[in-house]
Design a protein that fits this description.
Chain A: Its main location: membrane. Chain A: InterPro entries: ABC_transp_permease (IPR001851). The complex is a heterotrimer of chains A (320), B (538) and C (365). Chain A has one domain: Orthogonal Bundle (ABC transporter involved in vitamin B12 uptake, BtuC). Chain A is built from 13 helices and 4 strands. In chain B, 32% of the residues lie in helices and 23% in strands. Chain B has 18 helices and 20 strands. In chain B, the strands form 4 sheets. In chain B, strands 6-7-8-3-9-10 form a 6-stranded mixed sheet, with helices on both faces. A 6-stranded mixed sheet of chain B has the order 16-17-18-13-19-20, with helices on both faces. In chain B, strand 7, helix 7 and strand 8 form a beta-alpha-beta unit. Chain C is mainly alpha-helical and 365 residues long. The chains are: A mainly alpha (320), B alpha/beta (538), C mainly alpha (365). Chains in contact: A-B, A-C, B-C. Chains A and C meet through helix 3, helix 4, helix 11 and helix 13 of A and helix 5, helix 6, helix 13, helix 15 and helix 16 of C.
């Protein structure tokens, strides 16, 4: 494995980590406010579909982005209606949303495009263009640093840089702003927030709005990366992001490292169909399953114990 | 939102001596009514509290005290009635409106974020602007002033979960003061405090009163009412039965007003005739999941035909004592039951093996432990005994029809109302739920009965019945270990009293030879000079 | 003070929820430019209009009874097992290994053995998430989802590298021996002079599913284990007080749940395909969630809900064929049913309770 290969794998890790990171941060805001969001997968999928569809029709990924965010937001609001307003089971609501996305994207997609659930492929302005950072061409010639800068740091799309920027921003909002204080409080003890004269319902909906927008970005990124929507293209990324969230102990910076790790795993799995270690050949199926296996190991607490926000998963019912 | 939070500049309101109380009451409620579905929690309540006074509201569990205060704090909306603050009618639609009207509330279960610092908890909901930094700095300064002024010292950077219960309560009071509350409502504030902490709280309240604050205290403890309040209102079954000056009333009169008839403060019972020891406990220790030692080497015994009462403030190891004897908490030490040692490690034992050994257990919390609220009465009537051979039809199936018949006769015998085995446990009143638990445990004819808080949340009529049942079991020659935080209950029911503090036994007393004052000191950990090895053979 | 009569809670609420779900499904059909009434007609005709349709409907229903019971048994212990898909996949592997290992002389011998194989493999796949939940506190919802993916990868690998017939282009196992063939409805009903379509896949397993439903009822409401499962599901602290070991209940309930999901394979793998193909479960594990929610975790409710979903599946296939509405429409309906009978339960319940309260007050007055 030479240096350039490593750089390429890392570069592809960043590409694959981007949607995971955005989704993970979406889950972070939601769960920090006490709303477990197993429906991330569904939001991702509906956003990917709507952005792909809108971009295919209008030729502009930016309009696609708007459509994707709108779809994901709508799903977030359904989740809020079920789990906040009607105090329903958050897990069941999330599961329902995942199926709703899986079904609707194909049914509606087929009706719109007659391509068996796919959208027409995107090209040109229908996809996000890579951003070449200043001097990347010039620096590419410098050994060692050059390729790293040109391949790894430069040349991603706007959303990747936005996702990276979202990490310190999320940290700042959570720990340095009034909104963040209240958000964290409502995920720990909603009755403390309620008796302090702040609306638990409004705060939780606000968290779901943020989650909806972030998932919308992630879904659009997927559609743009794959140049169009394909059936079930989220492929469990919503669940992986949830696992990354647990791995990250519900903290923004850890979320970055966790999703980069999962991105790296996927990148390796994509590049090497099977890996030979001496006499043992690791089959491709194992590489595909690796992120899920790793998630289970993390969940098993063999990599440190993760304590979720105390009120997460519970509807808030007033009591004396 | 920040307009009301200018606490920094004005600090506390200029003091007005309570002697010159103005004529306009701080709070006046007129005709407040509130129903929850078919239950009328508050019925046409009128009350008037003078500025700069401490007003007590007393009543039994379920009398509607907490509902009334929750209405005042905007937690519930009254169906009808008016609220006047300083003579002006106000609409309190939510807690925010209550805070704006100058009302602060300290709930029975604190409303604090456990893993936030004191400062973060104080500013939550009362921040200045979108950034935290200036709010925190301001709160730090103000907290310093407040704690100097009112003996409210608490480390502003400590996490709530690291603080003692007494300190957490101070944080709640600080929260209210930070929001410039002039009226402070405290709901059962001493329930979880040691007597020393309670005294400290009362000093704080006196200090606040001198600064012109108005305080409403909800309690069911007569002693506290007599000790600290200026006026007192009595509630019964959702209605306000009387409002009197504390100096012009007596505990006996208040008790009668509370329950609506003369209260039998003592249980009729013959002197005990203790027999052989049924259970002998030596050096019993319990360390909980957080690695905190809850029981620190407890030794005593309970004999046949006697009631041993454990007195103590909640959280001093009594719960763990019952749990380890009941078989669902692990411990170390030695427990000999009917001259056979029982396993404390939990490896070879659980609640069911304990029951098989003749230990029955009425747990402290019937909602979370003693009953499955969603189960019907007959299913609850075998809970914990569901493996007993007489409840099985064959090797595979339970004898549901037989269990229902047995439940019917038990319900009749224990006067459970309504006597319907197919009703879910949650549909019964507190007293009748407790009777179901008691019937289940007593009817199995145990050698040792563990009873925790037998009358918590139980109406007066049922209390007498439950006490009679416990005494009757004693008279059959059974051993009874009673845990209660109600000193009255301990004093009237026990044949011997053991006082616990901080996981240890502080001493042992005979009810006739002691009083609440002495027991109270021991419960606060004041060393017992007459300390003896409790339960040692004479 | 019960606010509502029992029948309203058990029947009226789910019924209204389902009607709302169907209404929105109709809206979806209408939105993609099709006629909902026409769609329903096509579905009913396709699912019940012929013995072939009925055969398919009951074949699908059999799958859903197994997975619905699987979800329900876990749910009685308040465990949300989303891993039915993976457990049924592994069950398929178990059934396949049993069927291919011996040249079975007769189905009466092969069926019990296959049942044991499927149940064991399904239970084994549920065991690890159960153990992790009981001993390490890992959230069973996420671990079971992960095990769905891992299970798909594992069985995919086994088919491709071990079970595949050498030289064949198809990623599937060898065909099961003739002695492992389960009687179809056609063969079962012929001796009684009833003619049933020859190609319909409904088979013996349907009767096994009904037996499993009866066994489920007995287990949950008549045995000590069922009593303990329900008690633990309602209150863990009370269960501890009563001497019920929580870890034991979690693991046993999940083993039964996994076994039931695994049993499904006698229908789809042994009864229908008669070989193991990739992705044989086709989402039936997930349908189990909707079926259990709709059937209120009771075998009679689960049976009825399974028939309904069997109808939707078969009708959906007809819809895809005649009206070119994708089969995924069933997934949409399934999502709406889960949403309205599960998460939005209070939306129907609260107004209904108020209605009953007002009604009973009126009666008193």
């Amino acid at each position: 494995m030479d240096y350039l290969t490593i750089i390429q794998i890392l570069d592809s890790s960043v590409r694959l980590a981007t949607p995971l990171l955005l989704t993970c941060l979406a889950g972070l805001f939601s769960e920090r406010a006490g709303v477990v969001d197993i429906g991330l997968e569904g939001k991702l999928l509906i956003a990917a579909f709507l952005s792909g569809a809108a971009a295919a029709v209008t030729g502009s990924i930016w309009i696609g982005l708007l459509a994707g965010v709108a779809g994901s937001l709508a799903f977030s609001m359904i989740h809020g209606l079920a789990s906040i307003t009607f105090k329903g089971d958050q897990l069941i609501s999330g599961v329902a949303l995942n199926f709703l996305a899986a079904g609707l994207t194909v049914v509606v997609g087929q009706s719109w495009f007659q391509l068996g659930g796919r959208t027409p492929s995107l090209s040109g302005d229908g996809r996000f263009a890579p951003w070449n950072l200043p001097f990347s061409d010039a620096m590419a010639k410098i050994p060692v640093i050059g390729p790293a800068y040109d391949e790894l740091i430069s040349g991603h799309t706007a959303l990747t840089y936005l996702a990276l920027l979202a990490v310190p921003l999320s940290w700042w909002v959570l720990y340095r702003s009034r909104f963040g204080l209240r958000l964290r409080a409502v995920g720990e003890n909603p009755s403390a927030v309620d008796t302090a004269g702040i609306s638990v319902v409004r705060l939780r909906y606000a968290a779901l709005v943020i989650a909806g927008v972030l998932c919308g970005l992630a879904g659009t990124y997927l559609a743009s990366l794959a140049a169009g929507f394909v059936k079930d293209m989220s492929a469990g990324r919503g669940y992986i992001a949830l696992a990354a969230l647990i791995f990250a102990k519900w903290r923004p910076w850890y979320a970055l490292w966790a999703t980069l790790l999962f991105g790296l795993l996927e990148a390796i799995g994509n590049r090497y169909q099977s890996i030979a270690l001496g006499d043992i050949v690791i089959p491709v199926q194992f590489m595909q399953a690796l992120p899920y296996i790793l998630t289970v190991i993390i969940l098993a607490g063999f990599v440190g114990k993760a304590i979720p926000p105390r009120a997460s998963g519970q509807s808030y019912v007033k009591e004396r | 939102m920040s307009a009301q939070n200018e606490a920094g500049r004005q600090e506390t309101v200029a003091p007005t001596a309570s002697a010159t109380a103005p004529s306009v009451p701080a709070i006046e409620l007129r005709g407040i009514s509130k129903a929850f579905g078919p239950v009328q929690a508050n019925k046409d309540i009128a009350i008037s509290v003078a500025k700069g006074s401490i007003h007590g509201i007393i009543g039994e569990n379920g009398a509607g005290k907490s509902t009334l205060m929750s209405i005042l704090y905007g937690f519930y909306k009254a169906d009808s009635g008016q609220i006047l603050i300083n003579g002006k009618e106000v609409q309190i639609a939510d807690s925010q409106a209550a805070i704006a009207a100058g009302i602060g509330m300290v709930f029975q279960h604190f409303k604090l974020v456990e893993n936030f610092t004191v400062l973060e908890n104080v500013i939550l909901g009362a921040e200045d602007g979108g950034l935290l930094k200036p709010s925190l700095a301001k709160a730090r300064k103000l907290l310093k002033q407040l704690s100097d002024e009112y003996e409210l010292s608490v480390d502003p950077d400590a996490l709530i979960e690291e603080l003692s219960v007494g300190h957490q309560q101070r944080v709640e009071i600080l929260k209210a003061l930070y929001r410039q509350a002039d009226i402070l409502i405290l709901d059962e504030p001493t329930g979880v405090l040691t007597p020393a902490e309670a005294d400290h709280l009362f000093r704080i309240l006196e200090g606040l009163k001198e600064q012109g604050k108005t305080i409403i205290m909800i309690t069911h403890k007569l002693r506290e009412i007599m000790e600290i309040t200026d006026t007192v209102s009595v509630m019964r079954r959702g209605e306000m039965t009387a409002t009197v000056k504390t100096s012009e009333t007596s505990p006996e009169e208040l008790a009668e007003l509370m329950v609506g008839r003369k209260v039998l403060l003592h249980v009729d019972k013959k002197p005990a005739t203790p027999g052989a020891p049924v259970v002998q406990i030596e050096n019993l220790r319990v360390i909980d999941e957080q690695k905190v030692e809850r029981l620190k080497g407890v030794s005593f015994e309970v004999r046949a035909g006697e009631i041993v009462g454990i007195a103590g403030v909640a959280g001093n190891g009594q719960t763990e004592l019952l749990e380890v004897l009941g078989g669902y908490q692990n411990g170390t030490g030695k427990v000999v039951m009917n001259s056979q040692e029982i396993d404390l490690s939990g490896k070879h034992s659980n609640g069911q093996t304990r029951r098989a050994r003749g230990i029955a257990h009425v747990p402290e919390d019937r909602h979370d432990e003693g009953l499955i609220l969603e189960f019907q009465a007959w299913e609850n009537m075998v809970f914990g005994y569901h493996h007993a051979p007489e409840y099985q039809k064959n090797a595979l199936l339970m004898d549901n029809a037989g269990i229902k018949a047995m439940t019917q006769s038990s319900m009749d015998k224990f006067d459970v109302r309504p006597p319907n085995p197919k009703l879910e446990a949650k549909s019964f009143s507190g007293g009748n739920q407790q009777k179901i638990v008691l019937a289940r445990e007593i009817e199995r004819n145990p050698d040792l009965l563990l009873v925790g808080q037998p009358t918590r949340g139980v109406d007066i009529g049922a209390i007498e019945f439950i006490h009679q049942q416990i005494v009757a079991l004693r008279d059959q020659g059974k051993a009874i270990l009673l845990v209660s935080v109600e000193l009255d209950e301990i004093l009237s029911l026990s044949d011997r009293i053991i006082v616990m503090f901080d996981g240890q036994i502080m001493g042992e007393r005979i009810p006739a030879e002691t009083n609440e004052g002495e027991l109270g000191l021991m419960m606060a950990g004041i060393t017992d000079t007459k300390h003896e090895t409790a339960g040692a053979d004479q | 003070m019960s606010k509502m009569p029992k029948w309203a809670d058990a029947i009226l609420i789910p019924l209204i929820s389902i009607l709302i779900a169907f209404f929105f499904s109709g809206v979806v059909i209408w939105a993609i430019g099709k006629d909902p009434i026409m769609a329903i007609k096509t579905m009913v005709q396709g699912a019940f209009g012929s013995t072939q349709g009925v055969g398919y409907t009951l074949y699908y229903a059999t799958n859903f009874i197994f997975t619905g019971l699987s979800v329900a048994v876990a749910y009685h212990a308040r465990l949300f097992n989303i891993g039915g898909e993976g457990q049924a996949t592994l069950g398929g592997l178990g059934v396949t290994l049993v069927c291919l290992s011996v040249p079975w002389p007769h189905w009466a011998l092969a069926l019990p053995a296959a049942m044991i194989g499927g149940a064991l493999f399904g239970a084994a796949w549920a065991f690890i998430p159960a153990w992790l939940q009981a001993k390490r506190g890992s959230h069973i919802v996420i671990t079971t989802i992960m095990f769905n993916y891992i299970g798909a990868a594992l069985v995919g690998y086994v088919i491709l590298n071990i079970l595949k017939v050498p030289g064949s282009m198809l990623t599937e196992s060898a065909r099961f021996p003739a002695g492992a063939h389960l009687p179809t409805f056609h063969e079962m009903l012929a001796p009684f002079g009833i003619s049933f379509n020859k190609n319909a896949p409904a088979n013996m397993s349907f009767l096994v599913a009904i037996l499993a439903s009866v066994a489920f009822y007995v287990l949950i409401w008549r045995t000590r284990l069922g009593y303990e499962i329900r008690a633990y599901g309602q209150s863990e602290s009370a269960a501890k007080y009563a001497g019920i070991n929580p870890a034991r209940i979690v693991i046993i309930a999940m083993l039964i749940s996994g076994a039931l999901a695994g049993l499904m394979a006698i229908n789809n793998v042994m009864g229908e395909a008669e070989r193991l193909i990739d992705n044989a479960v086709e989402g039936a594990g997930f349908i189990g969630i909707a079926v259990a929610l709709m059937g209120r975790n009771h075998p009679i409710g689960i049976f009825l809900a399974s028939i309904l979903f069997g109808f939707l599946y078969q009708g959906g296939a007809e819809l895809a064929f005649w009206e070119s509405i994708p089969r995924e429409l069933v997934v949409v309906i399934q999502a709406l049913v889960i949403m309205f009978t599960g998460a939005l339960d209070n939306m129907v319940r609260v107004p209904l309770e108020k209605l009953f309260l007002a009604f009973s007050k009126k009666k008193e007055a």
